Amino acid sequence: MNTPSHSTHDAQADDRNEHIKIYVNGEIVPKHEAVVSVYDSGFMLGDGMWEGMRLYDGEWAFFEEHMDRLFSSLKAVSLDIGLGPEDIRDILDRTAAANGMTDDGHCRLMITRGRKAKPFQHPGLSRFGPTIVAIVEHSKPAESLQKAGIRLASVPQVRGLPHSQDAKFNSHSKLNCVIACLQAEQAGADEALMLDPHGFVNTTNACNFFIVRRGEVWTSTGDYCMNGVTRQKVIDLCHENAMPVREKNFSLYEAYSADEAFLTGTFGAQTPVAEIDGRKIGTEAGAGPVTKRIRALYKALIAETVARQKAAR
Ligand SMILES: Cc1ncc(COP(=O)(O)O)c(C=O)c1O
């Protein structure tokens, strides 16, 4: 049977998302009123950073790790927003509360260099302070995704070297990834499997990538991909649970003959891969045994982390 098409961010339909309230620069407004200027640095240039976070039992899972990545990125592009992680937590909490959400909420926090005085590139033209937006949607990953898995196609678009645009920037400009995704779709797949400049398998356009071979869990060295929070949690969980895990170079040759493959990201946690370039991965549809075990460990880690975060408030 053919694997049905999906995207890694497929969520169950939820009409409530048409009526959510969105945080825009200090105000929480109905979705249809949530707008930013056409002069905004994010809109004009992709000059901004974002984070995706999930709400479990009223807590933003792995909040510190997300803030660490966000504030490192902001510092690297000299974007001083005059706020700290606790101010961001307050923004997210208020937005979730305005929407009556405590669980299954997915946030896209976006911070740009703000409105520009003129429609040109120079960062100095962004004179009015940052633009901060938090969209929190009701969001449950579609169950069909776990059952069927995702189809990947390797694409010509590569992950670049860190001195062009470091893949560790979760920047508004995702054109590199969008081009890769288009190439994958044009090849009849759901998502792109991107290689590094040396031809080793690196990442997908929106998630980190793992394979399981002969009982070992492999992922790329991490040199050319997003420093995914979920990626690191999976590596740590493997170490803590005596599951052999390696961050190493490997090629499509090894990916095609993997026993299992899965993607990691905040939204979908671990999403099984069904096919790579038309080659079936694994013996049955959905997650294999190692992926299932990692999923269970990750679920327990979230529960533990959320309880700890709650107790620390
Ligand atoms: C290109 C890319 N890779 C991987 C990830 C997954 O990162 P995380 O696990 O922190 O959600 C993201 C999400 O922001 C991403 O944009």
From TrEMBL:
Signal sequence region: none
Keyword Amino-acid biosynthesis in record: yes
Catalytic activity: L-leucine + 2-oxoglutarate = 4-methyl-2-oxopentanoate + L-glutamate; L-valine + 2-oxoglutarate = 3-methyl-2-oxobutanoate + L-glutamate; L-isoleucine + 2-oxoglutarate = (S)-3-methyl-2-oxopentanoate + L-glutamate
UniProt cofactor(s): pyridoxal 5'-phosphate
Keywords: Amino-acid biosynthesis, Aminotransferase, Branched-chain amino acid biosynthesis, Pyridoxal phosphate, Transferase
Pfam family, one: Aminotran_4
GO BP: amino acid biosynthetic process; branched-chain amino acid biosynthetic process
Pathways per UniProt: Amino-acid biosynthesis; L-isoleucine biosynthesis; L-isoleucine from 2-oxobutanoate: step 4/4; Amino-acid biosynthesis; L-leucine biosynthesis; L-leucine from 3-methyl-2-oxobutanoate: step 4/4; Amino-acid biosynthesis; L-valine biosynthesis; L-valine from pyruvate: step 4/4
EC code: 2.6.1.42
Molecular function terms from GO: branched-chain-amino-acid transaminase activity
Alphabetical list of InterPro entries matching this protein: Aminotrans_IV (IPR001544), Aminotransferase-like (IPR036038), BCAT-like_C (IPR043132), BCAT-like_N (IPR043131), Class-IV_PLP-Dep_Aminotrnsfr (IPR050571)
Family matches, as Gene3D superfamilies: 3.30.470.10, D-amino Acid Aminotransferase, subunit A, domain 2
Function: Acts on leucine, isoleucine and valine.
Family: Belongs to the class-IV pyridoxal-phosphate-dependent aminotransferase family.
PANTHER family assigned to the protein according to its UniProt record, in alphabetical order: AMINO-ACID AMINOTRANSFERASE, AMINODEOXYCHORISMATE LYASE
Record-given protein name: Probable branched-chain-amino-acid aminotransferase
Organism: Shimia aestuarii
